[in-house]
Structure formats: structure tokens, C-alpha cells
């Protein structure tokens, strides 16, 4: 059978209801990793749903305990046609954020997949259950079209702790490096640049959260008695923040300004337009680093954000000079910025700028490094040609995602070229009530993945490059 057979079979999975049925069954498993009492559902998602589905495609699978967080297991599956053949590793995560029950529009239950026009609502639908379901069904279509032989091996890694920072993923990959050994990663997470434009990305921005605290004295003091005589920690911190990031969001700390926005990256981003789809906020064209386009700011530059800032009690203010102020900040950063150097650089900048009272400290969240594969890499160019062949559209090529995923586990620890094919869109409400996927995107994504899995077994595939 042919490539066209694989693509048509994948479309039929959608048209005949198979995709929606599989997704509904998976959404119904309330596998949130953010609620410790729900941890048994993580194991059930792997053993009752993912493992049997992969076994039906000829995979042998096992689950493994997490070395860093109990009750947050991993599943590893292998489909080995011949140990001498090249191998593709695929990845997904079966956990979700909290369900936010009672906060969904029209009384929807987050754990029941529901259709409204072109939208399929359900917790985990976009992040990440629909995405790895699409990849598995696309693989099934390609496998059948090739008569049960892909011409290469496939391994799958499904984690259940991504929404709590992927604890244990990196040591697990180090410990299981031989079991996970492969030649290429093909996976899906995150959004397309626009709902109707197939997208590829080859890494992600890193992230680190940190706190800035000014703690001058115990409690507040009456502003009539002490105003003008006592330093105000809120005023100090506001000015300290203004020394870090300018009025248009530009970064003022030289050590946090990247040097990796190369001509090749600019070229890759030249035809990108950010479109979050219906209901997405309008782009603030004059926000961010001057001289850059919005895509360059999101995918090629660092962004310093103030996530929260409190002094006194904004809900119940009193006429008192507060004794303390605190801000929680975040840096999203591209390749070239090292997370372990961020907080020391900020502390040094604040001392030099005259704010010795401000204490900078890393937040409890685990920082994640930035990764990037050259868009001209053979695997990147091959995947782009495959997507264009299936859809007739020139895909968007992003050197890295604007958000953050644990890609370093694959690119740095396992040493793999990484190709990500996202199947969601920026307006999907992931991590919030009303999370959903778009049915037209899912249908096209099924055909995209069937074509890509098929093409990886063809002559000219990067798997067989000398």
C-alpha cells in the first residue's frame, strides 16, 4: 500500500469517530499530577490505557517507578523490527493540571469530553492527551499501510509528572539511556503558531522563576507618624523592578540579553505570524525589545516578566507604611543564557544600581534549560517537506518553542535531534477551565503524523543518512 493509503486511513480515524472515542476514554481518567490524592489515576492511565493501546501495535511495554517522586510513574514501550535498524523515540505526558471542577463554561465536567461546534472540551485534551493520541493513531495508519513493517524501530516514553515540573525525568533518562537509545525524537506538545498552519519546532525556551524581597522591619507603621522618615519597601522594590525591565518590557540587565538571535534564526522566523486563534489577545506590537518583530521576541529573545507583586494588603489597605514587599518574576530565555547564572546576575545588577536591600533568590520551581536544533538540520528539513507534502501548506519552522518543555532530557541527556509537531493552538485554554482542541486541527494533524511516520521509512529519510 501507499503513503496516500496511510493518510486516508488517518483521516478515516477522525471521520468515523475513532479519534474522538479514544480521546474521550483518556480524558475520563482524571490523571492530574497536581493533586496527590489523584496519583493512582496516573498509574491507571498508563496501565489501563496507554500500555494496551501500544501493545495492539506490537509494542512491549513496562512501567517504572519515578526516582524522585512516588506515584508519578513512567511507561517505556519498544517496537523492535530489527536491532540493526535505526530507531525513533516518541514522547508524551499522561498527566494534566487540576480539573478546576465547577468553573467550566455551561457546567461542563472537565473529565467528560464534550463537543461544541469545532471544539472538543476536556481536561488534558490539548495538553497532552489529544497530541499523543494523534501520534499513536498516525503510527497505526502508517504501520497498516506498510503491511505491518515500518522499516525502523519505535520506542515510546510517557511520563506522568510533566505538569509538576517533570520530576525524575532527567535521572530516569540517564539511568535508562541504553533502553531509550534512539536516532531521532519525534513528539508533540504545545501550540501551532496559528490554528491553520502546520508547525514544527526543534527545542524550547528555558525558564527560571525567582523572587525579589525587601524585608525592612516587622509590621507596618502609621504613615502619618512615620511617612517621610521610614523607607518604604514597596517603593524600593518598584524602582528595583524598573531597573531590571523597562516601560515597554525591554530587558535592562545586560547579562540577560541573548546573543543567539543569528541570521539563520531570523530567516526561519521571517514568515511567522503569531495567531492564537479566536478569542486570543491582540499582539502589542510596540512591546518588548525595540527593533525586533513579535515572533523574534517570542522565539528568539529573552522575556523578563513580573508574575506577582505585593506590599501591604491590596484587598484591605491601611494607612501604614508596610514593612515588607515581594515580587515573583520569571525569565523565559533562549539558548546561550545559563539558568544557574540568572539570579547571581540579577543580584549583581541590583547592588550596582543601588538596591542592596533587595534580596534575589531562586523560586522553588525547578529551572529548565533552553534547547535548540538548527532549522537547517537534515531531520528538520525532512520533517518540513513531509508536512508540506501532506497538507500542501508550507509549515512554520520555529528554532524553539516560546514556552518550555523538558526537551533537554532528549537533546542533551540522550543526545538526540528533536522534532516537535504540535497539534494544539495558543487559544486552547490549557491549564485553565474550558481547555479544548479544535476538530479541524486534529483531523489535519492525524494525516500529518501518518505521512511523517510513513516517510521516515522511505529512502532519503534522515534515519538512513550516512
From TrEMBL:
Organism superkingdom: Bacteria
UniProt keyword terms in alphabetical order: Hydrolase, Metal-binding, Protease
GO terms (BP aspect): proteolysis
Transmembrane segment boundaries: none
Domain Peptidase M20 dimerisation: 203-353
InterPro entries: Cyt/Met_Dipeptidase (IPR051458), Peptidase_M20 (IPR002933), Peptidase_M20_dimer (IPR011650)
SUPFAM superfamilies, A to Z: Zn-dependent exopeptidases
One Pfam family it belongs to: M20_dimer
GO MF: metal ion binding; peptidase activity
Entries under NCBIfam families matching the protein: PRK07079.1 (NF005478)
Record protein name field: Acetylornithine deacetylase/Succinyl-diaminopimelate desuccinylase
Amino acid at each position: 500500500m501507499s503513503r496516500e493509503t496511510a493518510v486516508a486511513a488517518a483521516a478515516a480515524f477522525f471521520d468515523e469517530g475513532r479519534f474522538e472515542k479514544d480521546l474521550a476514554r483518556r480524558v475520563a481518567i482524571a490523571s492530574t499530577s497536581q493533586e496527590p490524592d489523584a496519583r493512582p489515576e496516573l498509574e491507571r492511565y498508563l496501565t489501563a490505557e496507554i500500555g494496551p493501546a501500544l501493545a495492539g501495535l506490537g509494542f512491549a511495554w513496562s512501567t517504572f517507578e519515578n526516582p524522585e517522586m512516588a506515584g508519578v510513574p513512567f511507561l517505556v514501550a519498544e517496537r523492535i523490527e530489527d536491532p540493526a535498524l535505526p530507531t525513533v523515540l516518541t514522547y508524551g505526558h499522561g498527566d494534566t493540571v487540576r480539573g478546576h471542577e465547577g468553573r467550566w463554561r455551561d457546567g461542563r465536567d472537565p473529565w467528560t469530553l464534550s463537543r461544541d461546534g469545532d471544539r472538543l472540551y476536556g481536561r488534558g485534551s490539548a495538553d497532552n492527551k489529544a497530541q499523543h493520541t494523534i501520534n499513536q493513531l498516525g503510527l497505526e495508519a502508517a504501520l497498516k499501510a506498510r503491511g505491518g513493517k515500518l522499516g525502523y524501530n519505535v520506542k515510546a516514553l510517557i511520563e506522568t509528572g510533566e505538569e509538576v515540573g517533570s520530576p525524575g525525568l532527567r535521572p530516569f533518562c540517564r539511568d535508562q539511556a541504553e533502553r531509550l537509545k534512539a536516532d531521532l525524537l519525534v513528539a508533540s506538545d504545545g501550540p501551532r503558531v496559528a490554528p491553520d498552519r502546520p508547525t514544527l519546532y526543534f527545542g524550547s525556551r528555558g525558564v527560571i522563576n525567582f523572587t525579589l524581597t525587601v524585608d525592612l522591619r516587622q509590621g507596618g507603621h502609621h504613615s502619618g507618624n512615620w511617612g517621610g522618615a521610614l523607607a518604604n519597601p514597596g517603593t524600593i522594590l518598584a524602582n528595583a523592578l524598573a531597573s531590571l525591565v523597562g516601560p515597554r518590557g525591554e530587558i535592562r540587565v545586560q547579562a540577560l540579553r541573548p546573543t543567539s538571535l543569528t541570521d539563520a534564526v531570523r530567516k526561519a522566523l521571517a514568515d511567522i505570524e503569531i495567531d492564537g486563534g479566536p478569542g486570543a489577545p491582540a499582539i502589542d506590537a510596540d512591546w518588548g525589545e525595540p527593533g525586533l518583530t513579535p515572533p523574534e521576541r517570542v522565539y528568539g529573545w529573552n522575556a523578563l516578566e513580573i508574575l506577582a507583586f505585593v506590599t501591604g494588603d491590596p484587598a484591605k489597605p491601611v494607612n501604614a507604611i508596610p514593612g515588607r514587599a515581594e515580587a515573583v518574576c520569571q525569565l523565559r530565555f533562549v539558548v546561550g543564557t545559563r539558568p544557574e547564572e540568572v539570579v547571581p546576575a540579577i543580584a549583581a545588577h541590583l547592588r550596582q544600581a543601588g538596591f542592596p536591600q533587595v534580596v534575589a533568590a531562586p523560586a522553588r520551581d525547578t529551572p529548565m534549560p533552553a534547547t535548540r536544533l538548527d532549522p537547517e538540520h537534515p531531520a528538520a528539513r525532512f520533517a518540513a517537506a513531509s508536512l508540506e507534502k501532506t497538507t500542501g501548506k508550507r509549515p512554520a519552522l520555529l528554532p524553539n518553542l516560546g514556552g518550555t518543555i523538558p526537551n533537554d532530557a532528549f537533546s542533551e541527556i540522550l543526545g538526540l535531534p528533536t522534532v516537535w509537531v504540535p497539534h494544539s493552538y495558543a487559544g486552547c485554554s490549557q491549564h485553565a477551565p474550558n481547555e479544548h482542541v479544535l476538530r479541524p486541527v486534529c483531523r489535519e494533524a492525524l494525516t500529518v503524523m501518518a505521512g511523517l511516520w510513513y516517510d521516515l521509512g522511505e529512502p532519503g529519510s534522515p534515519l538512513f543518512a550516512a
